[in-house]
Amino acid sequence: MNHPSELALHILLSRLREKDAEVSENTINQITSDVKEALVRQFRGGKRDAFHIRMSNIGRPYCQLWYEKNKPEVAEGRSYNFVMNMMMGDIVEAVFKGLLTEAGVQYEGSEEVVLKLGDGIEVKGTTDLSINGAIDDIKSASPWSYQNKFSSLESLEKSDAFGYIGQLAGYAKASGKKIGGWWVINKANGQFKYVEANGVDVDAVCTQLLQKVRRLEENKFERDYTAVDETFRGKATGNKVLSDTCKFCDFKRDCWPGLDTRPSIPSSARNAADVDYVYIKE
User: Fold this and answer.
1) 216-226: pLDDT as tens digits
2) What confidence tier does 120 reach under pLDDT thresholds 50, 70, 90?
3) Please, what are the domains in the chain?
4) Which of 82, 145, 241, 273 would you call most buried, defined as having the most Cβ atoms within 10 angstroms of its Cβ?
5) Closest among 250, 272, 264 to 66, alpha carbons compared
6) Which residue pairs, CB below 8 angstroms and at least 24 apart, start in 71-76?
């Protein structure tokens, strides 16, 4: 376990499983209120606001933010289940905070903060929670992300397509608190763990965020990533594919004209996974 509060949560959940404990009415009301706020936000939120830098997106790659600012209309259409997926994440967060309360974990809830990056640049956002003076974020994850992306800070640093590191560092800087980490909940089975972020240099990350905002003000398009060599069983195939970060970008087809998504070419599996090919060797 990476956080002292994990043990308290495990004990509570074990007691709830054995019907040896009950969640208080106050906590049930807290969870219900948080879920209602999420329902209103997701189902009655009105039109999406015009692009602006905010804490929830500032950690994302520059090229993706450039597209969101300049060419939002070319984004790939989101799946029909997008809103449901967001709602599930909100429910998981509300329930998890309630469990922290019942487990006796002392924490500060959501807080509106303003990150001052210099040059008069300010970015607003709302934190999830802080424990013992350290800012934490709550993330619901697919089984694959839970096992792979969120296996450690080092794994997340290799492929942080959604900018979680920049977001958390920004929250820490804006709130004047230490950087904590991520409470990650597996949406498939309810498992959870804590991934520490104490190896993150908050000041260095915030300097990078300032540079990114300045680039957006200059508004020149530049890719942050290049195509990478495809390998199969440890050997290069001669083909070029998208980086792991680019795979998750809604603008990848406009950014990479001619992108060819097809089952893995070198694989002989009957149901080979799809691969985003930038270049295919003749």
Assistant:
1) 999 999 999 99
2) confident
3) 5-218 (3.90.320), 228-279 (no CATH)
4) 241
5) 250
6) 71/251, 71/254, 74/251, 74/253, 74/254, 75/250, 75/251, 76/250, 76/251, 76/252, 76/253
Q: Which tokens go with 175?
A: 């709130």
Q: Which residues contact 23 (CB under 8 A, 6 or more apart)?
A: 16, 98, 102
Secondary structure of the chain as H, E, C letters: CCCCHHHHHHHHHHHHHCCCCCCCHHHHHHHHHHHHHHHHHHHCCCCCCCCCCCCCCCCCCHHHHHHHHHCHHHCCCCCCCHHHHHHHHHHHHHHHHHHHHHCCCCCECCCEEEEEEECCEEEEEECCEEECCEEEEEEEECHHHHHCHHHCHHHHHHCCCCCHHHHHHHHHHHHCCEEEEEEEEECCCCCEEEEECCCCCHHHHHHHHHHHHHHHHHCCCCCCCCCEEEEECCEEEEEEECCHHHHCCCCHHHHCCCCEEEECCCCCCCCCCEEEEEECCC
Residues comprising the chain, all counted = 282
Q: Is the pTM of this model over 0.70?
A: yes
Out of 23-32, 41-50, 89-98, 257-266, which region has the weakest mean confidence (pLDDT)? 41-50
